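Batch job 17 of 40 flagged for manual review because the log was empty.
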Amino acid sequence: MLTVKVHHREPGSVPVVIPRPVPGSSRGNGAAPAGQTKPEKPAVQGGSFGDILSAELERSGGLKISAHAGRRLAERNVVLGREDMLKIEGAVQKAAAKGSRESLVIYGDLALVASVRNRTIITALEGKDMKEHVFTNIDSAVIIS
């Protein structure tokens, strides 16, 4: 069972859970062997929260976190919960509805740059790292609470 530590450095900081990949999901190209069809993915019944969240996001076509963004979040001990991910996904959907391609999502003291078309968080910055930082290659910004 996976244990997730939540670190609160400052009052009002946002807890974040980093979804872990589902075991075996990164093998090969995902194609079924010749002559076989790929079975439909069943709903996840057991496992760690991270595994379940990853599987559900994959099944629903939800928001993904790039390896780079995952490392940035892990380095900062930021843990995103299910509710946090749903809020961020909602912000990306709002940006998509306006025709955005790359969006800056501000969530508490966390800044996330998302590829709206790919539904992927590209990078993440936290509080003090945002000072005097210039965000480039974005065409929108969404602030959520």
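Reviewer: the log was empty due to a logging misconfiguration, but the result itself is present. Helices lie at 49-60, 67-75, 82-97, 127-130. Unflagging and moving on to job 18.
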